[in-house]
Amino acid sequence: MAEDRIVFAPDDVDLARSPLRRGIAEPTFVLGAFNPGLTRLANGNLLLMVRVAEALAEPIRDGQVRSIRWTPVGYRLDDFDAAGADVADPRFFVLSGGAYPFLGLTSLSWLLPVELDPEGQRIVAVHYDRAIEPDARHGEYGIEDPRIVRIGDRWWMTVCAVSGGRLCTVMYDSDNGLDWRSCGLVLDHGNKDMIPFEGTVGDRYLALTRPLSDAWFAMPPDDDDAGGPSINLATSPDMLHWRPVADFAIRPLKAAAASKLGGGTPPVRTARGWMLLYHGVEKQGAVGVYRTYRALLDADDPTRILEREESAPVLEAAPDLIAPFAHQAYLPQPVVFTTGIVDAGDSWLVASGEADLACRMTRIAKARLD
């Protein structure tokens, strides 16, 4: 396999088999097929759980800006006054005049399982019959950014569910990595990156979290850490009931370019501890520049950060990779958003979303990361 390549892109999605066809007859297109969860199946093949962001070909019509919404009886379109909406960002629109800046999504995301060969070189199957879509009101505007781990003989997957009432985490489980069952909502505050560890510490499950807020308090002037979104830790006896850990946080550093941090891959156990790849965002333009960094946590006490390196990213955006379909790109700043990792012998296979557009697979030698 090439060291770094695109393995799945918008044109690889057959929208005739989209779950949205049950309610949306109007033309749609794939805004992005990206940010995939990654795991290895029992047969040795890889599974990408691809986030498909499906958008209306004509989002504004007759003075109305339109969005897609799941309901128990099928998908429907909602209309909002375009005169009161900021539509500068192709991913969402902002409604003015309310008590808060309310957002509307221009696409609805669902999850598509894509099976690859063991080295990630070839698509074996695209499982449209196992696609995962919203199934409750807390996901009425879509489910996003899956993360998958295998612990023992079970697979677990977290997704971010979006609705008008909450931004929350939903847990799924599976006994084969292909057929998934929703376990329902497990984290109820605004949280974009709840990511389980691929394994336990003693009898406890662990997960990274990244709470969101409209405002942050300043850190002390003599502290190296900056305020703002950071990576926290939670524990659980059963993967369903979670309690925050007070003594852990990977916070932005005042001296670093990244002003916002969030989880990336599930932490995996190595000979030296729990290794994780996470994202940092440098302020630039409307979106910011996303890069992937590495941290190492103590194997027996993951609240202890053994190593953290942000001067040299593990991954940066690679615009050349999407050159064949660059006309489909819509983000003004470079973005790589890393979401999955699997063991490949003397290397790691790392899955990322490239430019919020396509799925990227990178082979990285373990000697570089472990």
UniProtKB/TrEMBL annotation:
Pfam families according to UniProt:
Glyco_hydro_130
Transferase as a keyword? yes
Which keywords accompany this UniProt record? Glycosidase, Glycosyltransferase, Hydrolase, Transferase
What molecular function terms (GO) are annotated for this protein?
glycosyltransferase activity; hydrolase activity, acting on glycosyl bonds
What InterPro entries does this protein map onto? Glyco_hydro_beta-prop_sf, Mannoside_phosphorylase
| Residue intervals passing through the bilayer | none
Please state which protein family the record places this protein in.
Belongs to the glycosyl hydrolase 130 family.
Q: What is this protein called?
A: Glycosidase
